Amino acid sequence: MNQLGRHIIVEYYDCPAEILSDVTHIEQAMIQAARDADATIINSTFHHFSPFGVSGVVVIQESHLAIHSWPEFGYAAVDVFTCGDQVDPWLCYQSLLKSLQAGHGSAMEMGRGQRSLLKPVEDAEVREQYQTPESVKAIQTRNIWFTERDDDIALSLRHTGEVLYRAQSPYQKVEVFDTYAYGKLLVLDGKVMTTDQDEYVYHEMISHPALMSHPNPKRVLVIGGGDGGATREILRHDCVEKVVMVEIDQLVIDASIEHLPQIASQFGNPRLELRVEDGIDYVEQAPDASFDVILIDSTDPIGPAEGLFTESFYRQVHRLLTPQGIMMVQSESPRFNVQVFQEIYSCFRGIFGAQSVHCMLISVPTYPSGSWSLAYCSKGGVHPLRDFDVEKTAAFSAKEKLKYYNEEIHSAAFALPNYVKTLLSA
Ligand code: SAM
């Protein structure tokens, strides 16, 4: 060869958006392309920038393959660089054309390192030292990342690259991945819902502070919560006679039972009435004063949960509460979703009264920014700190071997840093 390497710059057009946002499919397609050209794979690193495209590189002993995809345009930009004459980059081109299901593609080749322009290093010893040995042992490693991001903040979790569950329901895309740091990860429409390893923070905290401060919680309603974690926590309380859970999406329940069994462990409990329907319709039709505690364990305010973040919905919830009733709501993050955070607290104060709305902060490592909030709103003025029994809570936490909630956390969670107080008073 009169050059060190061959570099092809490739354009793929009219690819299905679904494929271009599927990090696992793209990683496998790129690995297969390298194999089809008989390259020796060293390492692969792929990121999915949910809800956007995928970027990734396969490092081969003979150089690299790289890709950046734009699902919204059905477009992928690829480059394949090979050195030596053993690997033909055009075989990678053909392989990817098929596996990305491109309508059409184009590519141009550049020779890299023209031998006529290269001058060998003069020192023979140095030259020898840097000469490529006959055989280099290649050990393949994989780096595949799930990333949830907005324009300015991202959270990434490395996973095995296998998709344990993927299905599109009428409401959302439901996926489960196996992450290295946090175990199984449930994702809805590209957003982290929960993971095996830190789920307890959210589920214990959305349930126990209300149930430990209410004088006698017998009937509990959960809106959303399809993974089953909140229900599992509520059912730890013997005083609770009935839990009605209203989840819109059967597939979230199915995926959780199959892949997150320790979270979904109580779906068979006889005290649970599980209803697969829209929580908005349910609260419109349920009778006045029918629940002592109501948890709104919802997704973010886009898609099916949009209507769960409205004043008319919370007014219905208020109507459904018994006179001493408490509503607990997943109230977004004071760091990540500042505007929604401020708006819903102002809405709660308008319905429940300023003195009866209390913000709690929890630390959830796998939610963007890590800092999340829950709103405790009481109808008849039950106070989360004055009306909770420290000793009873300590005994409950110890007996149930809880991982996060205890009598100290109960009080501490309501202590707010000044920046949050400022946001809430604006
Ligand atoms: N428990 C979780 C955690 O650890 O953060 C997160 C949320 S849970 C999976 C949110 C659920 O709310 C989803 O399963 C979603 O289908 C459900 N949901 C969204 N909109 C709904 C609606 N209008 N009625 C009932 N459920 C709804």
Plain-language structure description:
By secondary structure, the chain is α+β, with helices and mostly antiparallel strands. It has three domains: 3-119 and 140-145, S-adenosylmethionine decarboxylase, CATH 3.60.90.10; 157-195, Spermidine synthase, tetramerisation domain (Spermidine Synthase, Chain: A, domain 2, Roll), CATH 2.30.140.10; 199-425, Rossmann fold, CATH 3.40.50.150. The protein has helices at 17-20, 23-36, 89-99, 124-130, 199-213, 229-234, 250-259, 279-285, 311-320, 338-352, 390-399, 407-412, 418-425, and strands spanning 3-13, 41-50, 54-60, 63-70, 75-83, 104-114, 141-149, 154-168, 173-179, 183-188, 191-195, 219-224, 242-247, 272-276, 291-297, 321-330, 357-363, 371-378. Helix 6 links the parallel strand 12 and strand 13 (242-247). Helix 2 runs antiparallel to helix 3 (89-99) and helix 9 (311-320) crosses helix 10 (338-352). The longest helix has 15 residues, at 199-213. 42% of the residues are buried. Bound molecules: S-adenosylmethionine (SAM).
Helices and strands in order, then pairings?
Layout: E1 3-13, H1 17-20, H2 23-36, E2 41-50, E3 54-60, E4 63-70, E5 75-83, H3 89-99, E6 104-114, H4 124-130, E7 141-149, E8 154-168, E9 173-179, E10 183-188, E11 191-195, H5 199-213, E12 219-224, H6 229-234, E13 242-247, H7 250-259, E14 272-276, H8 279-285, E15 291-297, H9 311-320, E16 321-330, H10 338-352, E17 357-363, E18 371-378, H11 390-399, H12 407-412, H13 418-425
The structure holds S-adenosylmethionine.
S-adenosylmethionine is lined by residues 188, 193-194, 199, 202, 223-227, 229-230, 246-249, 252, 278-280, 297-299, 304-305, 307-308.
